[in-house]
Design a protein that fits this description.
This protein is of the alpha+beta class. It has a single domain, classed as Aminopeptidase, CATH 3.40.630. Helices cover 36% and strands 29% of the residues. It has four helices and five strands. Strand 2 and strand 3 form a beta hairpin. Helix 1 crosses helix 2. The chain is globular, with a radius of gyration of 15 Å. The chain starts with a strand and ends in a 14-residue tail after the last helix.
Length: 140
């Protein structure tokens, strides 16, 4: 049985690290909880999908108000464990995120995805997400 929860304790956040690390390999385990806690002060939430007490998918998200889209549900991070892909976990997490966005009264749902994540792009397109902009980045 799949269960999706929001991580609220340090222990729950720590348990999400191995899957999140697959998406964000520069993250350090010893900094993960404190970085999540800092982002939580800015409205970030961390959800995890668990199957038989094993976390197989994680998502970080927040609500934002933008001139371009209004109240928007923004997904910072979305990843399913490589060993658990193509089993419906990503689809379940995405459906949960979209339902959460609707429940929160958001009028838009958005996420960014690295240009190298072509399998993820195909997944998003299959689920009716559309490419509407380019994201530009400058490290400082």
């Amino acid at each position: 049985m799949r269960t999706i929860l929001t991580a609220t304790t340090d222990a729950e956040i720590e348990r999400c690290f191995p899957v999140m690390h697959q998406l964000r390999p520069a993250l350090l385990a010893e900094e993960f909880v404190s970085r999540i806690r800092t982002q939580q002060t800015e409205g970030y939430q961390l959800a995890f999908l668990e199957v038989e007490n094993v976390i197989v998918s994680v998502a970080g998200f927040r609500e934002r108000n933008l001139l371009s889209t209004g109240k928007t549900f923004y997904v910072d991070d979305l990843v399913t464990d490589a060993a658990a892909r193509s089993q419906g976990h990503g689809e379940a997490m995405l459906a949960w995120l979209i339902a959460s966005a609707k429940k929160a009264g958001c009028v838009a749902f958005s996420l960014d995805s690295g240009t190298h994540r072509q399998d993820a792009h195909a997944f998003y397109l299959r689920h009716r997400l559309r490419i509407t902009a380019f994201h530009f980045y400058l490290p400082l």
